[in-house]
Amino acid sequence: MAKIAFLDLSFHVKTKSTNFFYDLLATRHDVDTYYLGNDAVSQAKDIASVGYDIIVCFQTDNLVPYFIATGHRVICIPMFDGSGSMSDYYWKFMKQARFVNFSRTLHDRLKRIGMDSMYAQYYLDPSRFTPVEDYSSRRFFFWQRRPEHGLDTKFASKFMMIGDSIHFHNAPDVLSAGDWEPAFGTCSYFNEQNANAYSEALSKSNIFICPRSCEGIGMSMLEALARGMCVIGNDFVTANEYIQNDVDGILVNYADPKFDTLTPTRMQFLGENARTRAIKGYDKWLKIKEDLLFYIETTPRPRISKVSAKTLNEFLINFKNFSDGRETYRKNLRKFSGLQQKLSINDDESSLGKINHWLRRYWLWRRFQSLTKSIYRIF
Amino acid sequence: MDFDLIAHLRQAFMDLGEKGGLLIADSVRLSFGVDYFLKKVSNLAPMKRLFVVDHVAAFPYGHNISCMNVFASSFGRHFSETIKLGPTCMPEIAGETDDIHKVLNYPYNGIIEAKYFNGFFRNKKRSIKISFLIRKVTKNFYSKWVKTFDKDLMLRQTKRNWQKVLKKYNIDSSDTLFFPSTDYYGARALLEICNELDKAERPKMHFRFIGVMENAAYGRIQGCTPILNNIKKLIEEGASITISAETPIYCSYLQKLTHLNIIYLAYPLEGQLEPLNWDIDNFKIALPGQGRRDKGYFRFYDIAKFLNRDSKARKFKMLLQGMKLSDPCFNKPYNRILAEIKSLELLPAQLGINALNDIYKKSDILLQPYCTGTYAYRGSAVYQEGIAFGRLFVCSKNTGISNLVQRYGNGLLADTDEDFAKSIIELSKLSKQEVEKKVYNARALYEADFEEGKKLILEGILNG
To answer: Å from A296 to nearest chain B CA?
Structure first.
């Protein structure tokens, strides 16, 4: 039994969407969960000093280099919606970590740049949900989660051209629900006293509009699939990884949604396929769980030369600048090229390769290399 | 003794074995009439000297030296004298190489450098680099020579060396040269010399093909065709040459190529069956032999993963020999990952005979996830040792070894990594008695096959 630290974003305390991974780890190991808030720097330092066997960073991939530098075995679980747009330079800080990806796109990309990644597709247990039986009328459901991104009542009204009724779940992630009151349809709200409000409303509908244009996993979509609803999602990650257009759901471009009429037969076809997919997917997930645990347990210990406490401290402070925007963050990362070289040390590299790697830090050497390459190409 | 009757008896015993009947090695051998025949041969034999030849026995590890010794002792008792010929660079191993005459050249420094290159420097890493350099230079030199001038310098050197050896030992038609593991330059040079000799001066020859060094030549990839062509030509001229192969599938392959009679000659087993541990709570699975890509070294992680997934309550401990640092496929990160598998014991790449024997003794099931490309026709020393110790196997389908496993019934075949894990679990469900019966039968049949092959070879030499 290993001692594992499970690092997560404090936002997930509310959504509980990462609990499935904690439960998986807890089946075999002693797991401590840390929800990172604004004081993530000091929290990271504290966690590193405890002496965990493995540190699992769920959507906190920017802390991964720090834990590698302190000699920890690290599992990184990045989410496409959070880190999908980060550069290769960013990921190379984490070369000695192992990745678990719930997005095929991100998994493929990390594999291409030489990362050790495992792909898994998560599904909810369909037996927990009563499947939709009535496909006679078109009853839409839309969770107004990101109205600031244009996914608001106005957006949902476009679907009403082919719908009979719509239900809004008005619970934005960041903004206040009061500012985004829907002018039509029925409505429910996030209510801590009645946690089932969402499920009750969902069970009365048969068409689900995915609430975000880009997802990390897409738990709400998974629930709709498991219920056998006709799911409409944006043709982007991860909806396009879970849904095959016109087979077990409908993929549209959220910027300019175009769709055909939904007949009851078509809705039933899509809904039943969605449920079948969820059943098969859940069986596959049950099978892959053991492999996933084995993958986590066999994470290798990183091999790095000593990193000064000052550099590490600076790196952690830079982590704070993440909130200033990605561009600033990327610029700041460039300052830590030395740390990156230490962290991404390639064991397979020959001595000459290592010298070249070291020399590439200098502009003149890079110019010389590109010049020789172009001369070589000419001749 | 009617040999058709022997074949009939053999089949009957095979059937009995499959139905769960227990075979007794001695009774099988007596039934085959092999002992009877061998006694007859030794009474009649006018055979003078047996030369057991191996140009590749230049390493302290591997099986070439022990192979020479066991074949010499097994066949030697039917000859008035046995002389073992090895390469000049053969290392000194007490009790193993004392009676081997180091007179042959070693033609394969460009392919596998002989050990003496590693002794130049105390620093191990530096010596690896130097030997790598020497290997590259030698290979390039001889290969380029062949490609440029269409003449094989190494073949010429080996022929010169053979001429000296034939002269030194006064080898003539009453002598027999026995190659327990045929190599390209050694065999081809000898055959070309014999082609130039008079019929009365040609020694009798036996070549045992094992699918390894008979294909190793500088310059062009030509396989063992030049050797086989030379053999065919000499046989047509009336020379006494017999050929055998390590596996039945390799026999049929060579038979297709040459239309000659190829004998299946197994490996002479030594020692007795080792008692089986078969502890249900602590199964030990081993992948003996130096870690190599074609030996499934990189498949081991996935096999361990599936075993972990499917084994449920059963606990397996795994023993794996590591990869050599100088191996071009050596991968440090992969080794670090293997080190994190709790149930895995990672052993050094090169082990002495005693340490290797310990692995066989400790283990319950041996794995051979070998590459079907490299091992399509080949057998394996691990299989021979495993069968001698009395262990079960799980090995890759469509290899020479899988053919043996099917023949002797001492294991299961698998294709994918998942299949390997499933097969291991399936074997682990057998009772100790069942396993003991299986391994006992397998060894008895293997020994009987060896005796049968030996009889045919001696018959060939005697009649030739």
So the answer is: 10
